[in-house]
Structures are given as structure tokens and as C-alpha cells.
Design brief:
It is a single chain. Helix content is about 30%, strand content about 15%. It has 7 helices and 10 strands. It is α+β, with helices and mostly antiparallel strands. The strands form 3 sheets. The protein has a 5-stranded antiparallel sheet with strand order 5-4-3-9-10, with helices on one face. The protein has a 3-stranded antiparallel sheet with strand order 6-7-8.
Length: about 300
């Protein structure tokens, strides 16, 4: 069955159930890569390489074709469900996975997440400490970011299509409103820089959620030329939702309770809350053995 729907955002590869194979645009049959973790107390680089070589040799014999591992060393690493994880190497944070990599969000979202991880991973030794520290520090980091914000960090880049290609009347009205503002017809899919404001576009249904602000997204040049008011609270709430989603936190504990924090503390303050069953946590730092397991 094939069905066309109105959609804006990234589109990912289709895949076959169970085997997870898929065919790319050139007709090549592909499969997602996978990885394995090898962690030792106080690891020795030479000994580690020997272990990896032995594992490669074993699987080469099992499958009858070459298999190789790329070796990476990280100071800190935390795993979440479904191939999402955070790593710190040389004091730089890398976010991996569709949930963590905020490609559909403004730059400030990932900037907050990276600063938050850089702050809390080195001081978190357990799952409870890690989640407690997220609640403790997120609000302070978000507010500090907005005290010294560059407008380019709030820009959201979105692609819009010609109005007559949308079945949804509100999407169509949105494109017509943007065409009127830009004084230019949109005749093919076009990427535009937007900012989220407090004023809705003309002739559209005015609705706004943390995930869908399109009715309030104005072209950046129009916002700047007319000194329009940017909806800072929406941006903050969007980041809270991003954090909530990434770490499966409930809004009451992660978004609102954190707002009472005014200063960083040296010692993590532990706060008890129920965590969802799908959350997996693994934490490693030099000299500490890594364990990865389902917590519940």
C-alpha cells in the first residue's frame, strides 16, 4: 500500500522487518552497522588491541568473510534506548542517535544538551545521580544560554513546498502567507530560515506546541526587519521537551522542578522519581568497569 501524506521534516530509510535490510537510491542492498563494547579496568592500549584482533579473527572464521572493528576510546559514555548515546572525548561532547541529534531543532538545543552532558557526566557515577543532575542543572544552563543569545542560534531551517501540493488547508494557508511576506511565489521545495515569534501568520489556524510551532514561524529577515518579538519561552520549553524525550523524564520533575535552582552546587542533590522501563543506562570513566543492562 502506498499513501501520500503532508509532512515536513527529515525522512529516514525504509527497512525490512527482522533483518533490517534496505535498498538505497542506487539499488544497493545495505544493512545497518552495529558495534560492541570492550571495557576493562585501567585498560592498556596494546592489550586492548590484541583482544579486538582475537574477536575479529573469531567472527571472520564464523562468517567466512572479513569483519573489522573501529576502535574508539572515550572518557565518558552513557547509553539510552534504541542506539542513542552520549560520548565525551578530549572535553568534546558527541550526541549520537535520532533522539539526541537535534537536526530538526535550532542550534541552541544541541548546545544546551552538550553543555549539560559536559557538566554532569564527570560527576555522575550511577543512573540515579545522572538523572538527578539533569534535573538540577538543566534549568540553570538553559537560562544562562538565553542571557547571552545570538539570534542565529534560534534559527530553524525548514523546507516548504508550493501551496498547491498540500492537501491540508492550514499548510496551504501557511505557504500563501509566507509567499505574501516574501513577495515571491514558491514554485519548488525551498529551504527558508525561520524564527518562532509570539504572533501567528496571517490566515492560519493559530496553534503552537513544543514540537509544532509552524503557525508562528516567520521568515528570519521579516522578523529582523520588523523587530518582531521572538517567543523565548517557546524556545526554552522546546529544549525542556528535547531533554524530557531524550532521557524519558516526566515534565513535572525535569521541566518545572528545575526552575527553582539558582546556583550550581558542588554535590549532586538526589531526587527520587520513577523512571520508565525502557530506559537503559551505562556509564564509564577511566578505571571504572562499564556495565550495560536493562534497569527494570
Amino acid at each position: 500500500k502506498k499513501e501520500e501524506i503532508d509532512y515536513e521534516g527529515y525522512v529516514y530509510d525504509l527497512e525490512v522487518d527482522i533483518d533490517n535490510n534496505f535498498i538505497d537510491a542506487t539499488g544497493v542492498l545495505l544493512h545497518n552497522t552495529d558495534g560492541a563494547e570492550f571495557v576493562k579496568d585501567a585498560p592498556d592500549a596494546k592489550d586492548f588491541a590484541t583482544v579486538v584482533a582475537e574477536v575479529e579473527d573469531y567472527w571472520n572464521k564464523q562468517f567466512g568473510y572479513p569483519i573489522s572493528f573501529d576502535i574508539e576510546h572515550h572518557a565518558h559514555k552513557v547509553y539510552l534506548a534504541h542506539k542513542n548515546y552520549v560520548t565525551i572525548k578530549d572535553n568534546k561532547v558527541k550526541l549520537t542517535g535520532a533522539t539526541l541529534h537535534a537536526s530538526d531543532k535550532p542550534n541552541i538545543a544541541e548546545a544546551v544538551m552538550k553543555e549539560l552532558m559536559l557538566k554532569i557526566l564527570p560527576i555522575s557515577n550511577t543512573k540515579d545521580e545522572f538523572l538527578s543532575n539533569i534535573r538540577q542543572y538543566a534549568s540553570k544552563i538553559i537560562n544562562d544560554k538565553f542571557n547571552n543569545i545570538n539570534i542565529k542560534d534560534l534559527v530553524m531551517i525548514s523546507s516548504i513546498k508550493p501551496a498547491n501540493t498540500y492537501q491540508n488547508q492550514n499548510y496551504k494557508a501557511r505557504v500563501e502567507a509566507i509567499e505574501s511576506l516574501l513577495k515571491n511565489r514558491i514554485i519548488f521545495p525551498t529551504k527558508i530560515e525561520f524564527l518562532v515569534t509570539k504572533k501567528p501568520l496571517e490566515n492560519v489556524i493559530a496553534r503552537k506546541t513544543d514540537a509544532d510551532p509552524v503557525s508562528y514561524m516567520w521568515p528570519r529577515n521579516i522578523v529582523e526587519e520588523n523587530h518582531m518579538e521572538i517567543d523565548v519561552e517557546w524556545y526554552k520549553n522546546m529544549i525542556y521537551s528535547y531533554i524530557d524525550s531524550a532521557f524519558k523524564l516526566d515534565k513535572a520533575s525535569s521541566r518545572y522542578a528545575m526552575k527553582s535552582l539558582s546556583e550550581f552546587g558542588e554535590t549532586p542533590v538526589e531526587k527520587k522519581s520513577e523512571e520508565p522501563k525502557e530506559l537503559k543506562f551505562a556509564y564509564a570513566k577511566p578505571g571504572v568497569k562499564l556495565s550495560q543492562k536493562r534497569l527494570f
